[in-house]
Design brief:
Length: about 150
């Protein structure tokens, strides 16, 4: 069985607009600084946007439910449905209890109360800090990562 080789495809021929170095770069994720933010949740769209940001957040949030109870923890999953009652978040409580599933319709307020555990922890920040310490003559430097706590 014969046919065109993979390298003979138009995208792989000379004069192709694709440049291999440009293809090797993947953009990173830009994280917003939302620690301490308490969004207004007056409209359905505001609630959906705030919960999407809470899902992307790398710290704990506090949810106040419509029955006035509060739960603090890490949102690890969410499912968005056509309505607030069919959309929900799943949360690991800060106290280590069982995972909780909460419908968007039950949420009255949201606050980004926990510390963003990854803030300032980029690779570039770590390397810069390492070289600053090394230049200052700090002893005991290691290429092993620091503790997050």
């Amino acid at each position: 069985m014969t046919g065109p080789r993979h390298a003979d495809r138009p995208s792989h021929t000379e004069g192709s607009p694709l440049h291999p170095d440009a293809l090797e770069v993947a953009p990173g994720t830009a994280h917003e600084a939302v620690q301490g933010w308490v969004p207004a949740l007056a409209r359905e769209e505001e609630l959906r946007i705030a919960l999407e940001k809470a899902f992307d957040y790398r710290g704990d949030v506090t949810l106040t439910l419509k029955d006035h109870s509060k739960i603090e923890g890490y949102i690890f999953d969410r499912v968005t449905g056509p309505s607030l009652s069919t959309s929900y978040v799943r949360l690991i409580p800060k106290d280590g209890g069982q995972k909780v599933k909460i419908a968007y319709a039950e949420i009255a307020a949201l606050a980004f109360t926990g510390r963003d555990t990854a803030a300032g922890k980029s690779w570039e920040a770590w390397v810069r800090k390492y070289w600053e310490r090394k230049a200052a003559g700090a002893g005991g430097l290691s290429l092993e990562p620091e503790s997050l706590e």
